[in-house]
């Protein structure tokens, strides 16, 4: 065996490690951010992405038109439903709250005047301590006094309930209630003094305090309630009319596009599918058209009935109610004039002022008023356009609306002229020293006496009021009836239009499944 020198025990050569080089990782290349889009650009991009899906195919177009039909019909139905419910609420407020409050306040004004007038009549007709009593006038005055007092109690309870939540009206009703209690105490004391012999001067003094309280506090507060409630009624009316006008515009703004969409669907089907007519879509169009017509009629008729109820009828009711209250106060001034010699000038001036409130004649005095009334009334009957007189009667005559109202209003003024002539006769008798005859003529109820003529005047006034009150009631009833009759039909027709439109499109969409 050959042994090579130097190789037998030589250790294995160690592997020499070469130095490692660090791996260099290149930095990540930043990905450029997409440019920010403006909101308008995003909307355009979204539309562009959706366009192929929703508009490029026939089914997509049909579904889009169907969705537009449904949305417009639902929006229109919702609008009509909301408008109908609001109109129902308006009628409820008008008939059950606003009008009764105003008439109750006017009734309170009238009853206060009537009670004071009857108190004066009781004192005037009672004689002196029971002697020289005018039996029929006295008994009549006592009965009417009790009726007026009960009516005041009823009206105060009604107005107190109605005023809850309105602090101003609540304070007014509280003031009337407190002052009325004091007024009744004064009148009761006057009547008690009148029943004893020689007590007439004390009775008249107590009555003066009572009638001053009436004039200074009770009547101003009662008329404040009339004005407050009537103003609230008018504000509600104005707001309701404005809302109805806006709702009518909105119905047309939704109804016309709905009809247009249905027309487009009909045209598209005829053009794309070579069909001239789609019966279901035609029926849907007819239903939608009928619903739009019913909706517009519903809102316009509600506005018309509301105008008739508020302005044509109730404005006259308020004017005539004020006229009646003023008439009773003027009639009381006649009794006060005879009862209290110390205040005759004051009561004569008050009577003239109330006459001017009823039928105002410029520059008239108590001695010239009756002649001026006859002349201006004759001129008015010949030509009603001239501004010859003012007052509550003129307000009514300028608002003649209903059949029979003109004749009844003319009759009222004629009866008023007779009553005014009677007043001059009473004053003439008193000047002539015939005081007892003046009292008997003023308080008598026989034909031809002042009270009989006053009753005829009030009867004529009531006839005009009843005509307007009846039309107010009928307008409210017709307005409610039309809402109940037309609103369900309009909403039902819109539902039918949606169903028929879907039914008409269904076969066409089925062709693409």
Short recap of the structure:
By secondary structure, the protein is mainly α. Helix content is 79%, strand content 0%.
Q: How far apart are the first and last residues' alpha carbons, in Å?
A: 97 Å
- Output mean pLDDT: 86
What is the number of strand segments?
0
The string of secondary-structure elements, in order, is HHHHHHHHHHHH
Care to describe what's here?
With 513 residues, the protein is mostly helical. Helix content is 79%, strand content 0%. The chain contains twelve helices and no strands. The chain has helices at 39-54, 58-125, 135-162, 167-194, 200-273, 279-339, 344-358, 369-382, 392-397, 405-431, 435-443, 450-510. α2 runs antiparallel to α3, α4 (167-194) runs antiparallel to α5 and α5 (200-273) packs antiparallel against α6. Residues 1-19 have low confidence and may be disordered.
Features:
513 residues; mainly alpha; disordered N terminus
Please write out the topology.
Elements: H1 39-54, H2 58-125, H3 135-162, H4 167-194, H5 200-273, H6 279-339, H7 344-358, H8 369-382, H9 392-397, H10 405-431, H11 435-443, H12 450-510
Helix pairs in contact: 2-3, 2-5, 2-6, 2-12, 4-5, 5-6, 6-7, 6-12, 8-10, 10-11, 10-12
């Amino acid at each position: 065996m050959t042994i090579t020198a130097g190789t037998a025990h030589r250790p294995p050569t160690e592997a020499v490690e070469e130095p490692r080089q660090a791996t260099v990782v290149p930095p990540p290349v930043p990905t450029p951010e997409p440019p920010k889009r403006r909101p308008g650009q995003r909307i355009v991009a979204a539309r562009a992405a959706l366009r192929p899906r929703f508009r490029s195919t026939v089914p997509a177009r049909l579904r889009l038109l169907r969705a537009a039909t449904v949305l417009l019909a639902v929006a229109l139905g919702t609008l009509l439903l909301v408008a109908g419910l609001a109109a129902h609420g308006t009628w409820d407020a008008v008939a059950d709250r606003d009008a009764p409050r105003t008439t109750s306040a006017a009734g309170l004004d009238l009853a206060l005047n009537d009670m004071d007038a009857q108190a004066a009549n009781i004192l005037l007709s009672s004689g002196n301590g029971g002697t020289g009593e005018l039996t029929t006038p006295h008994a009549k005055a006592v009965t009417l006094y009790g009726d007026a007092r009960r009516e005041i109690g009823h009206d105060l309870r009604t107005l107190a309930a109605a005023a809850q939540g309105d602090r101003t009206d609540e304070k007014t009703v509280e003031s009337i209630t407190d002052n009325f209690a004091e007024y009744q105490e004064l009148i009761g004391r006057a009547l008690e003094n009148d029943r004893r012999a020689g007590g007439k001067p004390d009775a008249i003094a107590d009555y003066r305090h009572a009638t001053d309280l009436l004039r200074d506090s009770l009547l101003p507060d009662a008329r404040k309630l009339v004005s407050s409630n009537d103003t609230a009624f008018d504000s509600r009316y104005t707001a309701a009319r404005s809302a109805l006008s806006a709702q009518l515009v909105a119905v047309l703004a939704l109804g016309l596009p709905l009809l247009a969409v249905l027309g487009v669907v009909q045209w598209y089907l005829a053009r794309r599918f070579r069909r001239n007519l789609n019966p279901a879509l035609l029926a849907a169009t007819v239903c939608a058209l009928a619903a739009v017509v019913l909706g517009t009629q519903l809102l316009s008729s509600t506005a018309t009935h509301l105008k008739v109820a508020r302005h044509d009828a109730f404005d006259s009711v308020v004017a005539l109610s004020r006229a009646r209250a003023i008439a009773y106060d003027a009639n009381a001034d006649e009794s006060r004039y005879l009862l209290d010699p110390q205040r005759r000038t004051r009561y004569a001036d008050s009577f003239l002022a109330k006459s001017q409130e009823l039928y105002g004649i410029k520059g008239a005095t108590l001695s010239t008023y009756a002649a001026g009334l006859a002349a201006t009334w004759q001129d008015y009957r010949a030509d009603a356009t001239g501004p010859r007189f003012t007052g509550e009667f003129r307000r009514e005559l300028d608002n003649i609306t209903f059949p029979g109202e003109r004749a009844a209003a003319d009759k009222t003024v004629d009866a008023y002229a007779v009553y005014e002539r009677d007043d001059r006769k009473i004053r003439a008798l008193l000047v002539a020293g015939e005081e007892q005859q003046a009292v008997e003529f003023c308080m008598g109820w026989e034909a031809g006496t002042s009270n009989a003529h006053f009753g005829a005047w009030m009867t004529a006034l009531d006839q005009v009021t009843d005509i307007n009150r009846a039309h107010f009631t009928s307008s409210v009833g017709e307005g409610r009836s039309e809402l109940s009759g037309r609103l369900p039909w309009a909403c039902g027709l819109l539902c039918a239009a949606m169903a028929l439109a879907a039914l008409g499109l269904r076969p066409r969409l089925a062709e693409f499944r």
